[in-house]
Amino acid sequence: MRTLDVDSTVSILNKIMHYELAGVVRYTHYSLMVHGPFRGPIVQFMKEQAAESLQHAQQAGELVTGLGGHPDQGIASIEESHQHDITSLLNESLEHEQAALALYHELLDTVVDASVYLEEYARTMIGQEELHTMELRKMLRDYNV
Prior knowledge:
145 residues, mainly alpha, Ferritin, elongated
């Protein structure tokens, strides 16, 4: 067992919180911009993603305070492509999920063998983000023909 680098862990958790909060805004925006015959289920999917991003941000913030840190009030930057067709929204969502996945991998690398709880948290979140990327890839199959 190695010693947990609390400062690095808190820093990464704050980045995760910022990124997940950006996901709330991103997915809420996407839910408003969807149009076309498949609007209903895609809007529902985007709203679910926004709610889950908020939950993930709150979880990361709870861990920050649990480690004695201070959750930043920031949010990651959100680029607006102004491309609102379903394919663009789904591709941007996939990019967002892949970036989140990288942050959780960074967390795992930092906490492995130093905290069983944080390691399991990171692995669980990696699993969830991998599932999201698979789901988005499946959704994109019909649009990338």
